[in-house]
Design a protein that fits this description.
single chain; 324 residues; 8-stranded mixed β-sheet; 10 helices; 12 strands; globular
Length: 324
């Protein structure tokens, strides 16, 4: 299969005074052209760090310790900023979490989108750039008459649409959505999800969606990668993972969301806390919170991510034994 993005055994660490935090510790996945993959997991599991590693926008104390990132056949793992100047936004772009923080409050929205156009297409005229912004506003279903407004004049949903327009301005092959519906009300979330789905169909773009909300993943993504404590613990098609989940963490994660089609009851919680990634425990990192932990195995030997069903992978000693 022709993969647009290949991430192989990615390890991204952060330097702090006490040592190194292993935020992403051996993550592997692929995204094909036109495909969408959802990275899901609770806060602090490494989803956003994985995305920032892929687009090479890590903070100063973060670095890729090991692994490979191959985009469209090119290894960009250790590419420098100057080498990525033309790459970002034309090949890969990002919808950042929190549109109000991503937009400059003292610049018109149209000027912010045109800035990307002028940087990547130096020969474009102002009239051509304005026409492109108008086209983008129509694409994300905002009245082009509003494109010269300031961010504070836009509603939350409109700002998020403007950020999506900005991410699409240079026609990237892959778009990364870092929790693009966070802080939006349910109705606006639904509109943004529908918009993303429509754009994927119209533009045939690939998508890496980061969220802790499984309901969003099931609406938008073809496949799901479940992350826990810096590792992928389950990977498969959306339908397969949601209906035939294998990892105990995935089961708990699904159980933590209400289901309108089932009995009305309080959702389940996951007892305990995620491990400290400064000094992660040996074995399976979910073992201290797992009700199915096999003492002497799960808490001592790290499980591999293995295919136990066609195109369905899980890192769990118990599930591996069940399918042998």
């Amino acid at each position: 299969m022709n993969h647009l993005l290949e991430v192989k055994d990615l390890k991204t660490y952060f330097r702090i005074k006490a040592g190194e935090v292993k935020a992403v510790d051996g993550v592997s996945f692929t995204i094909s052209k036109g495909e969408s993959l959802g990275l899901v997991g609770e806060s602090g599991c490494g989803k956003t760090t994985t995305a920032l590693s892929v687009i090479k926008l890590l903070p100063d104390n973060g670095y890729i310790a090991d692994g490979q990132i191959i985009f469209d056949g090119k290894d960009i793992t250790h590419a420098k900023d100057e080498d990525l100047y033309d790459f970002r936004w034309t090949e890969m772009s990002m919808i950042f979490q929190g549109a109000m923080n991503a937009l400059n409050p003292v610049q018109k929205v149209s000027d912010q989108i045109m800035e990307a156009l002028f940087l990547h297409y130096p020969h474009i005229t102002k009239e051509e750039a304005l026409a492109k912004v108008e086209q983008l506003f129509e694409l994300v279903e905002i009245d082009p008459k509003l494109m010269h407004g300031y961010p504070h004049e836009f509603s939350g949903g409109m700002r998020q649409r403007a950020i999506i327009a900005m991410a699409l301005s240079c026609d990237p092959k892959l778009v990364i959505g870092d929790e693009p519906t966070t802080a939006l009300d349910v109705m606006v979330q639904a509109q943004i999800i529908n918009l993303i789905n429509d754009l994927r169909t119209k533009l045939q773009m690939s998508l890496l969606m980061i969220t802790h909300d499984l309901s969003i993943i099931t609406e938008v993504c073809d496949r799901i990668a479940v992350m826990y404590a810096g590792k992928i613990v389950e990977l498969g098609s959306t339908q397969e993972v949601v209906t035939h989940f294998l990892h105990p963490y995935t089961e708990k994660l699904i159980g933590a969301f209400p289901n309108i089609y089932k009995e009305r009851k309080m959702v389940d919680s996951i007892p305990g806390d995620p491990p400290d990634l400064f000094d992660p425990p040996p074995g399976c990192r979910f073992a201290p919170r797992c009700t199915e932990c096999i003492q002497g195995l799960c808490d001592e030997v790290e499980p591999e991510l293995l295919e136990v069903r066609p195109a369905h992978y899980v890192a769990c000693h118990r599930r591996k034994a069940d399918h042998e």
